[in-house]
Amino acid sequence: NLYLDMGIPKFFRWLSERYPIINQDVTTDAAMPEFDNLYLDMNGIIHPCTHSDDGSVVRMTQEQMFLAVGNFVDKLMAIVKPQQLLFLAVDGCAPRAKMNQ
């Protein structure tokens, strides 16, 4: 699961164990409630879309990277279908300590 390695260490695991109902498989044909807004932390999307899962080097052009990220966001939009707002949060490059991690 790519989300286990991103963000605040052990926070996802703690949150999932404390509130197990928050983790549910979602598919495009599942009945979804209506949502007004969808907020995305793009750092958790950009990295997995532009790097391989196994750590091997993948050469992508800037256009390929934008397409991969855009396709992923499109999939999320098709599932959630926000009625009013899509908010994409990007906070810049990771600090050196995080990159070394």
Describe this entry's structure for a reader:
It contains 4 helices and 2 strands; from the N terminus they run αβααβα. With 101 residues, it is of the alpha+beta class. The chain has one domain. Strands 1-2 form a two-stranded parallel sheet. The longest helix is centred in the last third of the chain and has 19 residues, at 62-80. The chain is globular, with a radius of gyration of 15 Å. 1% of the residues are buried.
Key phrases:
101 residues, globular
Q: What's this entry about, in short?
A:
The chain has 101 residues and is of the alpha+beta class.
Provide a count of the helices. 4
Regions with little confidence, pLDDT below 50 for 5+ residues: none
Radius of gyration: 15 Å
Roughly what fraction of the amino acids lie in strands?
5-15%
- Termini Cα gap: 18 Å
The largest sheet is:
2 strands, parallel
Q: What is the 3D form?
A: globular
Q: Count structural domains.
A: 1
